[in-house]
Specification:
The protein has about 325 residues and is mainly alpha-helical. The protein is about 55% helix and about 5% strand. Helix 5 (about 95-105) packs parallel to helix 14 and helix 10 packs antiparallel against helix 13 (about 275-300). The protein is globular, with a radius of gyration of 21 Å. Bound molecules: tryptophan (TRP).
Length: about 325
């Protein structure tokens, strides 16, 4: 290893999660578990993207409790607020402020092509608000303020990260070197977890069928019941295969929570029926989530301590965000 590498500052990572409803096992295995791992290697900034949540209607009391709950889950998972910057997006006003500068440098046409906007406006035709349309610009501001080298995103957010890169490049070309152009971070092990009731669909908390998803905070009984009811096929062989999406999804989940390879899982359940396997998956998931839930229950009880942490997080975040924001303002020609 060369000297430079040893002394180099750790690379910066940024990601955010929306506080819309319960976080699921899919969020955990697909994204959050990686956040926990990344803090060992990178300088991480993580936020609860509460401003993004109101692009769809939210009941105020529910939104408030979900913001608390999402922040507390991040801590319960083991994300260290001392080592990283962990904050609530709306506490740092530079996000909305920078998003205005970026909006005026983003074309209507390119926003119109965003597939998530098309999907969401089709799903909520009664509330196709301007925020829903410009959501990717706010997301670009979230990212660019902190100059991250990497942004871990799932497949559904890749297009938004692309546009954030385009906006950064264009802005830099026009006004000078202001933003870092971030790379997508594809984690080594990020599992795509599907619905337990319809394995063709991604596991989602917005699914009306409650049996299709497991919440990080579900009780052991609920978790086991949901896995027992998981949709499988009639072949009764525990094997990963394209024509066995239900079982394949369960194998993916079991492998992710036990850190066993797919081959090891298949061997472990050779000659055993689906009943045994589903129970084993349910128990392994419940065992993984139980300590998280236990820590969460402790953390959420102490609102004062939580408040201290999110306020400190916001201060740390704003220190970085302000610098980038004012630099951008100055370059655009505003009087400071
Ligand atoms: N839009 C993302 C989602 O719904 C959340 C998000 C907001 C985000 N700002 C971000 C993700 C910045 C990565 C970087 O999942």
């Amino acid at each position: 290893m060369c000297e430079e590498n040893i002394n180099a500052a750790p690379k910066r990572v940024l990601s955010c999660i929306q506080p819309s409803g319960m976080l699921t096992l899919g969020n955990y295995l697909g994204a959050l578990k990686n956040w926990v791992a990344m803090q060992e290697e990178f300088d991480c900034t993580f936020a609860v993207a509460d401003l993004h949540a109101i692009t769809v209607r939210q009941e105020p009391a529910a939104l408030r409790s979900q913001i608390y709950s999402t922040y507390a889950i991040l801590l319960a998972l083991g994300i260290d607020p001392e080592k990283n910057t962990v904050f609530i997006q709306s506490h740092v006003p530079e996000h909305t402020a920078l998003s205005w500068l970026l909006s005026c440098n983003t074309q209507f046409g390119e926003m119109s092509r965003m597939t998530q906007f098309k999907d969401k406006s089709a799903k909520h035709p009664e509330n196709v608000n301007v925020g829903l349309f410009s959501y990717p610009v706010l997301m670009a501001a979230d990212i660019l303020l902190y100059k991250p080298d990497f942004v871990p995103v799932g497949a559904d957010q890749k297009q938004h990260l692309e546009i954030a890169r385009d906006i950064a490049i264009r802005f830099n070309n026009k006004y000078g070197d202001i933003f870092t152009v971030p790379e997508p971070y594809i984690p080594k092990a990020g599992a795509r977890i599907m619905s337990l009731q319809d394995p063709a669909k991604k596991m989602s908390k917005s699914d009306d069928n409650q049996n299709s998803w497991v919440a990080i905070l579900d009780s052991k009984d609920d978790i086991i019941r949901k896995f027992k009811r998981a949709v499988t096929d009639s072949d009764a062989v525990v094997r990963m295969a394209d024509d066995k999406p239900g079982i394949s999804n369960l194998i993916t989940i079991y492998s992710a929570v036990t850190d066993k390879t797919v081959a090891e899982v298949e061997r472990e359940f050779e000659g055993k029926g689906y009943g045994d396997f589903k129970l084993a998956v349910g128990e392994a998931v419940a065992d993984t989530l139980a300590p998280i839930k236990q820590r969460y229950d402790e953390i959420i009880k102490d609102k004062k301590a939580l408040e201290t942490l999110y306020k400190e997080g916001a201060q740390k975040a704003e220190y970085v965000a302000r610098k980038t924001y004012f630099k951008a303002m100055k370059k655009v020609g505003f009087v400071l």
